[in-house]
Write a structure and sequence with these properties.
Blueprint lengths: L12 H11 L13 H4 L1 H4 L5 H14 L1
Length: about 60
């Protein structure tokens, strides 16, 4: 079984939106967590940064606050 690529070059914007949507709990509350996944991954959805780049930017911001 081959793993699906989630690179921008291998996905459409609709597929990227569906992927992020699949990560959001149905009740849209992440157990008291204030992370807005739509905001965090907006650059990925819009095709300007890969998921790894979004994650790295978030970690850099999180650990410097």
């Amino acid at each position: 079984m081959q793993t699906k690529s989630y690179l921008i070059s291998d996905t459409t914007k609709e597929e990227r939106i569906a992927l992020i949507k699949s990560w959001i709990p149905e009740d849209e509350v992440a157990d008291g967590c204030d992370i807005d996944l739509w905001d965090m991954y907006a650059d990925y959805i819009n095709g300007t940064k890969e998921i790894a780049e979004c994650n790295a930017a978030f970690q850099a911001e999180y650990y410097t606050d």
